[in-house]
Design goal:
heterodimer; A: ABC transporter involved in vitamin B12 uptake, BtuC; two-stranded antiparallel ribbon; 13 helices; 2 strands; globular; B: mainly alpha; two-stranded antiparallel sheet; 14 helices; 4 strands
Chain lengths: ~325, ~350
Amino acid sequence: MSARNLPVTLLLAALAVGMVLPLAQSGTAPGFWLEVLIGGLMAGVLYALVALGFVLIFKASGVFNFAQGAMVLFAALAVARLSERMPLWIAFVLAAAIMVAFAWVVERLVLRRLVNQEGVTLLMATLGIAFFLDGFGQTVWGSEIYRIDLGISKEPMLVLESVFQGGVLVNREDIVAAVLAAGLVMLLALFFQRTSTGRALRAVADDHQAAQSIGIPLSTIWVIVWSVAGFVALVAGMVWGSKLGVQFSLQETALRALPVVILGGFTSVPGAIIGGLIIGVGEKMAEVFLSPLLVQAFDLAGGGIENWFAYVLALLFLLVRPEGLFGERHIDRV
Amino acid sequence: MLYRENGQFKTSYRADAAVLPIRQDRILMGVLLAFAFVVVPFVGSEYAFRALLIPFLIYALAAIGLNLLVGYCGQISLGTGAFMAVGAYAAYNLVVRVPQLNFLVVLVLAGGCSAVFGILFGIPSLRIKGLYLAVATLAAQFFVDWMFARVKWFTNYSTSGSVSTAPVELFGMVFESPAQKYLLVLSIVVVLTLAAKNLVRGHVGREWMAIRDMDVAAKVIGIRPVYAKLTAFAVSSFIVGIAGALWGFVHLGSWEPAAFNLNVSLRLLFMIIIGGMGSLLGSFFGAAFMWFLPILLNQLPTALGLPLSTAMIAHLELMIVGALIVFFLIVEPHGLARLWAIGKEKLRLWPFPH
């Protein structure tokens, strides 16, 4: 193991030990621990879905898309409102079409005009897009809480009753979400590895200028990649929305996916997924097992450390390994 | 014709290094200050002070603080709200725990707390930049939101989690009426603006700008990045912290942690983008724009006979601000301040531009 990997390994080991530690305590039932773990994994899948959108756009255009959260909200609102009038699958297709149109507009009006600008400028531009999209979405679709009914029963299932006392409660929705996410990732992997468009996308991600010089049209690629990110946002929005209801706070949940990208690396699709799972589990475990300890020790007015746990974790990672777990090492050349 | 510098010769180094080298600018600034200090307190209505001028001035101060960091030193921050919160809560705790302290001392100490906090969260900036730094400052934002909501000591064990303050008292005078508060805020803003102006003109400001323009080149010519970046974080958070304390004590009176959430941070960032990054004047423009736009949107349609719903106004504001951010980034990255400068340039030649 090289010295460079040591701090990261230590950090991950500390996390893993922290996760298993509650089991060693006498007070925690293994079934309950497993429930928390599964809950964390499911939340992690959802984070990974949002993080995927970040990674896709960053890979292909070097833009850190702060508007991903707004896109999730917008897509979810579109599906929720359209499905009031038509069957869900037509609403889904329509919403996907809207996201493609949105990608086209963004490329035309914003990206094309900001080519070769610094990353920070582009980041701020996507902040502007996020604000615009929030206002626009709520003007068009309305700003109440809407429901997306995926037709899954809300009854939790009891599994492994024979192994643990009391069994383990699992949400059916969570399982559907996990399956959906896994399917989406497979689809994306196939798209990236097996189609010519996917190859072009990878080429652009590798080197903009080289890709352009062999005849890959950059602007088309950007539209495609923003459309794909829009599609990912749509799936994420539907899953989140059916779980929590479609409302403005969906945006903020998407903000929680930011540390995931830091942890996994900005340019890595597997990183987004593994990072999502780590953050999801870490957050839930910290909230359930660490927060009562903190509350006791410092006499806090309630826990809620999941609000910042992921960010502080990401901050630690930034200090020891800025490129994340799977990201490419960034070397500045002068 | 009026705005022309013909015949104004600089005969000393002092004159050459003046803050406002052109006589007309000095006169304009003098008139503006006299108007703000003497005329406005008498003619302003209570509504104008409470809802327009005081919040505008405080926001402008915070925007100046942020501008030093983002516009001058090039270190992006999405955690300004957190630094404001640190200033506000530090001031609250000082006032509650050491009541005999002069409010000006409280302000400076609160700014100092915020500066220490800023340095702490600025340390990552030594290794990372750009959007990584944005995430690091976001971490500050979320952590501070949580800290002031949960750690009871900071709110002096108030049951609701919100804190409230008595009116500010200074040299035996109680600042209770809106006009008095306005004068207090205005004086502080003027003093700090002048200080900031001189900082960015001096060698510290030049170091910041060198780091912003190209950090490697700056290092090569002998600028210490650690020192430059951390001073930028410290000075910026100091000013932002004072703005936060003023926001809490003078504008709000009583507040809860949500008063300084991420939304405030983003708004401040937008102020400096729209107003002009790397320009103190731009901070004022941006603050005025961002603070007056919703009020205008509230009142204009009603005046025109087209009343909009509150939700609609909020959404419209989001859309306008978002679109303007993108517009300014594409068309005029230096914001309103640059437009102002262009206008002045044109005015110098007017009416014979050739």
